[in-house]
Amino acid sequence: MKKLLFVWSGLKIGGSERALLTLVKYLIKDYDIEILCHQHICEYTVLPDVSISYIPTPRAKFLNKLIDKLYLWQAIYKHASNVDVVICNEFPLLAIFSYFVAKLQRKPLIIWNHSCRDELALTNNSMVELVYKYVLKNVRSIVNVSSYSERSLFKYVACELENSQVIYNVVDVILPSLPLGIPHQKAKYHIVAIGSLIREKNFSLLICATEVLIKEHHLDLEVIICGDGIEKNNLLELISTLDLNAHVKLVGKVSNPLDYIQVSDLLVSPSNSESFSLVVCEALLLNKPVIVTNTGAAEVVGNGKYGIVVEKNNKAQLVNAILTVIKKPLLVQPMLENYDVALSRFNADTQVIPRWKKLFTWL
């Protein structure tokens, strides 16, 4: 049985982390799997057959960054020595260290890209970026979660990469069972948005669009935003400034987004940068209308076949799209009828897992 090592930043609640654990759930039947986390974070229940290790945290404050890098290198080297294939996420240091460890040990390395590299800076160190681009061009294989993320990667390195391919994430979820115990005002129209509270997710756009819908179009809305992050206080201030406290709620991290999607009428993904979108897939699964920006989430909805696509950071388009869903449901109905076709692209048994297994046999 082949042994696989996943080198990841940590297992906090997030899309790439859920994608990792879902993939592992299917691969564990045929492979011995270990996950090595840079950060000592695990906010999920992990399969008992999966080994999880954490890189030690430096105790001394002096030279912490240097010691952390030494610990990182040592841990990757130690754990990679006992496996057949190493898979790491696209974070620069993890990718760089994993690449040179794999070279030294003559092990195949796969970089699993969940981001839009030319849209999201992960390092401001020019030397690290130079080495990182070298790694991306020379690593054995890169797996991108969408064609959008692959094109973004090509823009970042300024060329197309022969070692790159697209394998969608598995969409595999357990439907929630009512009652959910979520506060829910039946008279209102319910919109949900889910993701980390960071600028790239652009939840401020949805909040500003909500103001227009309530004050100019006189809609009775309840907007729930699930997630946590550094933009929380800014979003709360915006909600208060626009006098939307009775209509927009930040509920923090949620372990199962499906609970909130199920009690909503519409899911909106207003991101400026999105490589894929599991929550959009989950909305499709629950037969909910979706509105996304022209990011990787647009690819999930078939570029308009299964959901409405608007331009990034375009408030007027977002307002009009929400009005269309609410006031012209017959225009949206054909999208709802084809969700099974949309989701078939992300099926584990027929689409995703066979491609990963084939990739392992090539290496």
Write the layout of secondary structure elements.
Blueprint lengths: L2 E6 L6 H13 L4 E6 L13 E4 L9 H17 L4 E5 L2 H14 L3 E5 L12 H13 L2 E4 L2 H11 L6 E3 L22 E6 L8 H13 L5 E6 L5 H10 L6 E5 L4 H6 L3 E4 L8 H8 L4 E4 L2 H5 L7 E3 L4 H13 L1 H9 L1 H5 L4 H15 L1
Parallel strand pairs: 1-2, 1-4, 2-3, 4-5, 5-6, 6-7, 8-9, 8-11, 9-10, 11-12, 12-13
Helix pairs in contact: 2-3, 3-4, 6-11
Q: How many separate structural domains?
A: 2
User: What is the correct CATH architecture of the largest domain?
Assistant: 3-Layer(aba) Sandwich
Question: At the fourth CATH level, what is the homologous superfamily of the largest domain?
Answer: Glycogen Phosphorylase B
Give the radius of gyration: 21 Å
Number of helices in the DSSP assignment: 14
- What proportion strand? 15-25%
Find the structural class using helix and strand composition: alpha/beta
Distance between the termini: 15 Å
Average pLDDT rating: 91
Summarize the main sheet: 7 strands, parallel
Shape category: globular
Could you please say which CATH topology of the largest domain applies here?
Rossmann fold
| DSSP strand count | 13
Low-confidence stretches: none
Order of helices and strands: EHEEHEHEHEHEEHEHEHEHEHEHHHH
Which CATH class of the largest domain applies here?
A: Alpha Beta
Fraction of residues in H or I helices: 40-55%
Strand order of the largest sheet: 3-2-1-4-5-6-7
